[in-house]
UniProtKB/TrEMBL annotation, chain A:
CDD domains: ABC_Carb_Solutes_like (cd03259). The keyword Cell cycle does not apply. It comes from the Bacteria. Pfam families: ABC_tran, TOBE_2. GO terms for cellular component: ATP-binding cassette (ABC) transporter complex, substrate-binding subunit-containing. Residues 3-233 form the ABC transporter domain. GO terms for molecular function: ABC-type ferric iron transporter activity; ATP binding; ATP hydrolysis activity. This is Carbohydrate ABC transporter ATP-binding protein (CUT1 family). InterPro entries: AAA+_ATPase, ABC_transporter-like_ATP-bd, ABC_transpr_FbpC, ABC_transpr_MalK/UgpC-like, Mo/tungstate-bd_C_term_dom, NA-bd_OB-fold, P-loop_NTPase, Transp-assoc_OB_typ2. Belongs to the ABC transporter superfamily. Keywords: ATP-binding, Cell membrane, Membrane, Nucleotide-binding, Translocase, Transport.
UniProtKB/TrEMBL annotation, chain B:
Belongs to the binding-protein-dependent transport system permease family. PANTHER family: ABC TRANSPORTER PERMEASE PROTEIN, MALTOSE TRANSPORT SYSTEM PERMEASE-RELATED. GO terms for cellular component: plasma membrane. Pfam families: BPD_transp_1 (PF00528). Residues 65-255 form the ABC transmembrane type-1 domain. This is Carbohydrate ABC transporter membrane protein 2 (CUT1 family). It comes from the Bacteria. SUPFAM superfamilies: MetI-like. One of its GO terms (biological process) is transmembrane transport. Keywords: Cell membrane, Membrane, Transmembrane, Transmembrane helix, Transport.
Amino acid sequence: MTFALDHIGFDIGGVRVIDDVCLTFEAASLNVLLGPTLAGKTTIMRLMAGLDQPSTGRLLLEGKDVTGTPVRKRSVAMVYQQFINYPSFTVYENIASPLRVAGVAKAEIDQRVREAARVLRLDNLLNRMPAELSGGQQQRTAIARALVKRAGLVLLDEPLANLDYKLREELREELPRIFSRTGAILMYATTEPSEALLLGGSTITLSEGRVTQFGPTSTVYRDPIDIDAARVFSDPPLNELQVARQDGAIRDRRGRSLDCVGMLSDRPDGAYRVTFRADAASIGPAATGALSFPGKVVVTEISGSESFIHVDVGVGTWVCLVSGVHDWAPGQTATVNIDPARILVFDASGRRVQANALREAAL
Amino acid sequence: MRNGTLPKIVFIVYVLILMTPIYWLVKMSLQTNTDIMSGLTLFPRHPTLEKYFEIYNDPTWVHAFGVSLSYVAINTVIAVAVALPAAYAFNRYRFIGDKHLFFWLLTNLMAPAAVFAMPFFQLYYAVGLFDSIWAVVLAHCLFNVPLAVWILEGFVGGVPREIDETAAIDGYSFPRFFILIFLPLIANGIGVTAFFCFMFSWVEQLLATTLTSTHALPFAAVMTRAYSVSGMDWSLLAAAGVLTMIPGAFVIWFVRNHIAKGFALGRV
C-alpha cells in the first residue's frame, strides 16, 4: 500500500497553515514527523486521517484519489497526545470497539483483543474502566485500539509526550516493533530530535507548515538540506554564526577573520551562516584544525552524564555538549573549539551550501 | 469554634426558618377547617387525613393531577430530546449566525411568560389545540427548550472533541456514536436539564391555566374549587398544596447525585 499527499495545502481562517506538502509513504514504513510545537504536525495527521479536508491538493491511496472519502470508511487509526478512550466502556470494550463496529465475529474479536492486550501488557486490566487506569495504561489502551484495527495507516500524534520518562523509553522501543508486523504505514509525530533518532526509519522535518526535508532519519540528521531542517533537528538549538565572504576572506560580524575559507572556496562572495550542533563543539585549549572562539561561560546545565555549557563568544551565545559532569562557573573564560568536519554552512536564503566533498575529505 | 455550639445553633435556626412554611402547610392539611380558624396551634389538635381522601375520591382532582404530570413529563422529554442535537451542533459546529442564534434562544427566557399567553391562546384556539395537554406542552417548550439547549451545551463542551473523532476513526456512524458513546458521557447533564425542565413546567401556572378550560385543567387550576359560597376550604387547599410538592420532591430525590456532579461539571 502506498499513501501519498499530493500538493496538500490547508487554510484556517484565510491563513495558510499547511503549505504545499508532497509526501509518499510505502507500506510497513516508519515515518517520524518532526517539528516544533505549532509547526503543523497534528494538522497534517488530521488531514491524512480525513478528519479535516485539505483546502488544496489530493490524498492518494494506491494512486486512487481518496480526498473526499469520509473518515469512517478509511483504513486509519490514530492515537492522540491526550489519552483518549471511551470513558463509559471497559478497557476490553475500548479495544474491541473498532472491531465491533466492523462486525467482526465474536470469537475473532476476543482473540484479537487479547492478543493486543498481551502485546501492550494490559491483560489483567481488561475489566477496568479507563478512569481507573494510570496515564500510561490509558495510553496503552488507546494504542491497543489502534493496533487491533489493523489499519493501513497508523497515526501517532506525540503519543508518549504525556508519559513519564521510564514508560516513554519502554514504549518508544516497542511501538515500531508492534506496528511493523501489521505492515502499516506508521506516522509518529514528535517535537524531540532525540526521539526521531531513537526511532529511526524516515524523518520528515516540518517548519511552519512546510515540509523541509523527507528522507532516512540519519541522512536528514547529518545532511539537512536547509537551515530550517537543521534547526528542527537540533536540540539544544543549532549554534549559528553569521559570516561574510569577501575577497577570499571570511569574517564574522565583528570583522574577525575565520579559518574556514576551504568550506566556501568555490562560493561567490556574500553572507553565509556557519552552524553546528552542540555536540560538534568542545571546550578546552585551542585545538589545531578546529575553529576556536574564546568566550565566557553563561550557564552550565548538567543532565546525567553530560553537561551543556552555554558560552557567550561575543557574536552570540552557543551551547556546547561536554561529556561528564562539569561545573564551570558563570563568567569563567572558556574556548569553544568547533569540529570543522561537522559544520553545516547555509547561504543567506537558508539553503545548504553543499560541503559534502569537503566534509568527506575531512573525515 | 470548630464543632462548637454556635454553628450548630445557627444551622438549626436556618433549617427551622426554611422548614416553617412547609411545616405549616402540612399541619394545615391535617387539620379541620374549624381547628384552623380557632386560633394559633403548633400541632393539629385532631389530626385527620380526611381532605386527602376527599381529593383522592374526587375524579376532577385526580384527573387534574394526571393532566399536570402528563404535560410536565411530555414537555421534559420533548425539551431534552430536541435540545440534545441542538446543543451538540452549537458546541461542535461553526455555521452562519451560530452565536446569534444561540443568544436568540436566551432571549426567549427574558420575557415573562404572561406576554405569550395571549398570542398562544388565540393561535391554539384557531388551530384547535386549545384545552389539550399538547397546548401546555408546546407552550412550555418555548422557554424549556432554550433553557435545555443552554445547559446541555455546557456539558457537550465538557466532552473532548477527540472522543468524537476517535469514534469516527473507529468507524462509528453518527447516530450509533451519539447514543452509545456520547449520551452516557453527558448523563449528568441530561439529569440536570430534565430536572430544570420538570420544575419550570411544574410550577408554571399562568400559561397552563390560560390555555385550558375543562378537559386539560391543571392541578393548580382545580385548586380554585376550594373557594366557594360557603367560604374558603383552608384544609382542602393545604392538602392540595402538599400534593403538588410531592412530584418535585421525588424528582429531586432521584437526580440528587446527578445534580451534585452535574452542577460541578457543567455551566450552570
